[in-house]
């Protein structure tokens, strides 16, 4: 087998010559496609297809002592959200494009020990953390032991510059939701989410606070927090709706809270919901409501690509974390006739 060859005898040098690029460019297309211009990558892939080149992963892994696997701990879904499932799918696609696989694992006992064992035994090369909490103790623990990882979520409560991370700007997303509700004529826009101290929940509430200030809304009394559970969210929303000046709309921290708020508002005599409600995460639940609800959608495909790119940089020997990646979500608007706001 020639140098850099595959099981068919085609070499990486032959692919490079056919595409008119360097061997390193071919290697980047296979391992880190985000580093290559799209038109160049397309030319290399055409050459790969025409020559029938297939990298010998087993030989590469043996030489490099790598598994080309990324570890991701299974996380139980909260409320009605399918966010973890969608991120897992996006991460698997992004990792596959870079020549990696994703290993989903559970950690019923000691997560730190389980994660370290996966790294030390060569089962995985690195980890992706998705359930990062305020002051999360795993981050410094992994760092001290030289375990490579990237976070989906900002490391809150500790120096972010020490770690590798990508995140979605939740404050921007909720602010967009408030802007939309104000454009529909609402002046009493409530926020329903987690109690303070949740990290990303605090971020989303901050977006609501910024937007109501910017629009000059009188909404200081229109905040409620509850567990992320439809029944608990509905109860919290009913408390706000029982006030002397109730809200006419809700911007919510998640789709679970949004479903609770919609149920609390009930249906009017005209057959339409009494409240305008915007959720966060654009899960199937908001589309199954009648009528469907608008919701903020996180760019999970792009998050996954950025996370994989950061992991490849980390595994390539970069010791100083790059600046964290912050992405903006989109507001998916599903219009319906809706109630006339009470000013």
UniProtKB/TrEMBL annotation:
InterPro entries: HTH_LacI, LacI/GalR-like_sensor, Lambda_DNA-bd_dom_sf, Peripla_BP_I. SMART domains: HTH_LACI. The keyword DNA damage does not apply. It comes from the Bacteria. PROSITE patterns: HTH_LACI_1, HTH_LACI_2. Residues 10-64 form the HTH lacI-type domain. The keyword DNA-binding applies. This is Alanine racemase.
